[in-house]
């Protein structure tokens, strides 16, 4: 059925017709994941994905190291969006590496309860928070549009609302 106001066709066909190559890669990733979940055990799939995650994290961190190093060693204060986004990417993936190393160490040691009550876990979570803040303070870093500044504002608003809700939940 055609929408008379703008000439667009409504419905699922219109949505599917707009999905580009990257969108289809994401759809296929989900389909492969569902297929693997159907033919493997949950623990095998989790361990496989843990291994793949640390490999990807190492690759991303190494790939972004020159840009990260350039941003943090600049002689002048370089608070441009590109530097902030690069720092966010590098620090975020480093936190994933630390999380995976911690998890593998915990499993190797026999999953002792005492290791869960250490500040190491808080450290890599703090790195993830710092990475997110760098992402949020670097809007429109790519082609002056990615991520869109207005969506960063919406994200900050919803993040603040979530923080308020968690605070109410925490004190009650």
How would you characterize the overall build of this protein?
- The chain is mainly α.
- The chain has two domains: 1-39, no CATH class; 42-138.
- 73% of the residues lie in helices and 0% in strands.
- The protein is built from six helices and no strands.
- The chain has helices at residues 12-18, 21-39, 42-72, 81-108, 119-136, 149-171.
- It is globular.
- The termini are far apart.
- The relative contact order is 0.07.
- The mean pLDDT is 86.
Given helix and strand content, the structural type is: mainly alpha
Molecular shape: globular
Q: How widely separated are the two ends?
A: 51 Å
What composes the largest sheet?
none
What are the segments in which pLDDT stays under 50 over at least 5 consecutive residues? none
Give, in order, the helices and strands: HHHHHH
The fraction of residues in strands falls at under 5%
Number of domains: 2
The helix count comes to 6
What integer is the average pLDDT?
Answer: 86
- Considering DSSP H and I runs of 4 or more, what fraction of the residues is helical? over 70%
Number of beta strands:
0
Radius of gyration: 21 Å
């Amino acid at each position: 059925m055609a929408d008379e106001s703008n000439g667009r066709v409504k419905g699922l066909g219109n949505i599917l017709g707009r999905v580009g190559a990257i969108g289809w890669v994401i759809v296929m990733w989900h389909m492969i994941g569902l297929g693997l979940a159907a033919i493997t055990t949950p623990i095998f799939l989790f361990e496989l994905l843990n291994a793949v995650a640390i490999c990807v994290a190492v690759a991303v961190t190494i790939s972004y190291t020159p840009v990260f190093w350039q941003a943090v060693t600049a002689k002048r204060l370089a608070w441009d969006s590109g530097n902030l986004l690069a720092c966010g990417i590098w620090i975020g993936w480093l936190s994933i590496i630390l999380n995976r190393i911690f998890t593998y160490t915990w499993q190797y040691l026999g999953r002792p309860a005492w290791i869960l009550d250490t500040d190491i876990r808080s450290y890599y979570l703090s790195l993830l928070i710092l990475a997110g803040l760098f992402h949020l303070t670097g809007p429109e870093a790519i082609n002056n549009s990615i991520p869109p500044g207005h969506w960063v504002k919406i994200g900050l608003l919803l993040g603040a609302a979530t923080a308020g809700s968690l605070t109410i939940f925490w004190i009650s």
